[in-house]
Structures are given as structure tokens and as C-alpha cells.
Prior knowledge:
There is one protein chain. The chain is mainly α. The chain is 91% helix and 0% strand. It is built from 3 helices and no strands. Helix 2 runs antiparallel to helix 3 (36-56).
Amino acid sequence: xxxxxxxxxxxxxxxxxxxxxxxxxxxxxxxxxxxxxxxxxxxxxxxxxxxxxxxxx
Length: 57
């Protein structure tokens, strides 16, 4: 697993940054439309993304 993270670290960090910028807008749209399942799913994805960023910087 560590070799995978080291090999693709630049792409993963870029993707994590883009997700950190996009997910709040998707959360807002899902909440506006009242989709509880989508909100919960997006919050879970956001939490995993934030944990990844905190671990790998």
C-alpha cells in the first residue's frame, strides 16, 4: 500500500485537493434538494478525503 501511495502521490494529492474544493458545492446542492442519502454519502467521502490529506499531507 505504501508503494502505491509513493508511486502515485502527486496524482492523489491533486485529486484530494480538487475533491476538497468540489465536495462542499455538491453537499450544498444535495442538501438543497433534500436528498439525505446523498448528503450522508458526500459527508463520508469528505471525511475520508480529509483523513487522507491529514495523513499524507
